Amino acid sequence: MTETTPPKLSVARRLLLNLATLAGGTVVALALAEGLLRAFHLAPTNGVFTVTEKEFRRVPGMYGPGQDLIETHLRALPHHVTIDSLGYRGADFPREKPAHEVRVLFLGDSFAYGDLVDNEKTLPAQLETMLHSRCSNVRVINGGLHGTTVTDQIKLARRALTLKPDFVLLMFYENDVNDIAQSGQWGQLAANRAAKSRFPLSWLYPILRRTALWNFALVSVMVHKSQSRQQVFVHDVAPINATAAQNRLRAIYLDTLRQFRAEMAAASIPMLLLTFPADQTLFQGSQADWLIPEARRLGIATLDGREPLVASKLSVKDLYLLPYDRHASPAGYRIMAQFLADRLPHYLPQLNHCSTAETAHNQ
After folding, report:
1. What does pTM read for this prediction?
2. Are β-strands 79-83 and 102-107 bridged in parallel, bridged antiparallel, or unpaired?
3. Which residues of 12-41 are buried (b: 16+ CB within 10 A; e: fewer)?
4. Options 3.40.50.1110, 3.40.50.300, 2.60.40.10, 3.10.310.10; CATH of 53-362
5. pLDDT-above-70 percentage for the chain
6. Which of 19, 29, 114, 227 has its CA 20 to 30 A from that of 298?
7. What is the rounded radius of gyration, in angstroms, for the C-alpha atoms of the chain?
């Protein structure tokens, strides 16, 4: 009896078999990794996301409308985030401004957005609450966007003009000068919108963003960027002995600030610049020492945010989210909000003309 030799697989069939084996193994490995990340709570399964191309054309804000979640990208500091129908953080409000409503557009980076604190504890939200004791028809729009600086924020202001703001409050944080060179945030957001709006990611993205693997990768990127930016920031915030490179960035910042003021003046919208110190610069020299006199020379009203924080006599651990993060704490935002609420009526006369009935209603 003779033995038969099994037929040899063709090269193409062997290749297909190898690919199928590889694909199957990859799927199993990804499923296992997803399960482990979820089981041990090593990564969130959701997170705040930005707009698609279609939404970018429809709403003035930069976050995907209609979000409501507990953000846990830093496990020690879970916080509640809602994004309204217009792409801004906070409670929903109408695009069309009601008669007699006073709108303050609050712009800045993650300190304006209020990273790692609940909705009602952000600086814009606490400011609105405090202003309501004077006028119930005041709305503070949280236009804060992570990683942005003045070159991005002027674009955010242009997009928000359809909301008819009565006042623009622009917040400067210590790393905003360096971020002109470091971030390129506006271009990154554009690339992100384009990628997730094209097939197949347009179909996959709504699924991927709810997986632990996807969010683990995003958090890893965020941590790396934050550490890189923080390293640059820590060594280059002092207002004296600036390098030639930093002086060039400062010139860009001031040129953009000058253009910002001109565009708001053309729209008859007054603006105020607020500097917010970092925990490292609260009690020493900072970029504010350079910026404040320069901004005032441009005719821009400016407030030094170190004043109320230092006057509070609270420690940096009370004013910031240390040791977990360097963003401001709810207490830090509360002190800054009160500082602004006390001073805004000087720059925004509408706040001095509330009716007797309205004031009585607030009381």
Report:
1. 0.86
2. unpaired
3. eeeeeeeeeeeeeeeeeeeeebbeebeeee
4. 3.40.50.1110
5. 80
6. 114
7. 25
